[in-house]
UniProtKB/TrEMBL annotation:
Record's keyword terms, sorted: DNA-binding
Protein name: DNA-binding PadR family transcriptional regulator
Pfam family, one: PadR
TM annotation in the entry: none
GO terms of molecular function: DNA binding
Superkingdom per UniProt: Bacteria
Length: 200
């Protein structure tokens, strides 16, 4: 049985993988990667296959997950599937209810480039922000599509809500990039972001 010290020692990645298992499905590492790409990646990150398998080993060692080998219908090699244990369900429920909520840490590559705008030409900054607009719109559309695909899955009601949040977030990022492009144009014209003339 996992003790309290071991429980506290689990990293966020472990809780995320255990959370994916908490929906009650028996999942392979491939399944977990697919599910994380359709949900976690929009608001946290999507772990690599190596991270997933490393966390699954940790969770099994903690007694929070169990696994078994199952035969494939296609004749390919058997695969290992994982299921959350009762102890794991108790632990992830307690973590979700009681763990301190860490504030999000923003690491915004385009804004770091904008911060160094004095080293770039305005057109270079426009290109960076234009690419960010395209990325944000692509992510927004992906979130919409994934939410639509999950709408009939009753177990995914709350993950679907996070996909709606992601849709709004990436729409906001897209619009913020457009506003920054306007600000760059204003700066190039000798005005600040509020339309006031700069300089003497």
């Amino acid at each position: 049985m996992a003790d309290e010290t071991n429980e506290r020692a689990l990293p966020a990645t472990s809780w995320a993988v255990l959370g994916l298992l908490s929906f009650g499905e028996e999942l392979s590492g491939y399944d977990l990667k697919k599910w994380s790409d359709r949900s976690l990646r929009f608001f946290y990150w999507s772990p690599s296959f190596s991270q997933i398998y490393s966390e699954l080993k940790r969770l099994e060692k903690s007694g929070y997950a169990s696994s078994r080998m199952v035969a494939q219908d296609t004749g390919t090699r058997d695969k290992r599937v994982y299921r959350i244990t009762d102890e794991g369900m108790t632990a992830v429920r307690e973590w979700a209810r009681e763990a301190p909520v860490d504030p999000p840490v923003l690491k915004h590559g385009p804004m770091l480039r904008l911060w160094l705008g004095h080293l770039l030409e305005p057109e270079q900054m426009r290109e960076v922000l234009g690419r960010h607009q395209e990325f944000a719109e692509q992510m927004r559309r992906r979130a919409v599509a994934d939410a639509e695909a999950a709408k009939d899955e009753s177990a995914w009601a709350y993950p679907t809500l996070t996909l709606r949040w992601a849709e709004r977030y990436y729409a906001s990022e897209r619009d913020l990039a457009a506003a920054m492009l306007d600000d760059i144009d204003a700066l190039a014209a000798g005005r600040d972001g509020r339309g006031r003339t700069l300089g003497p």
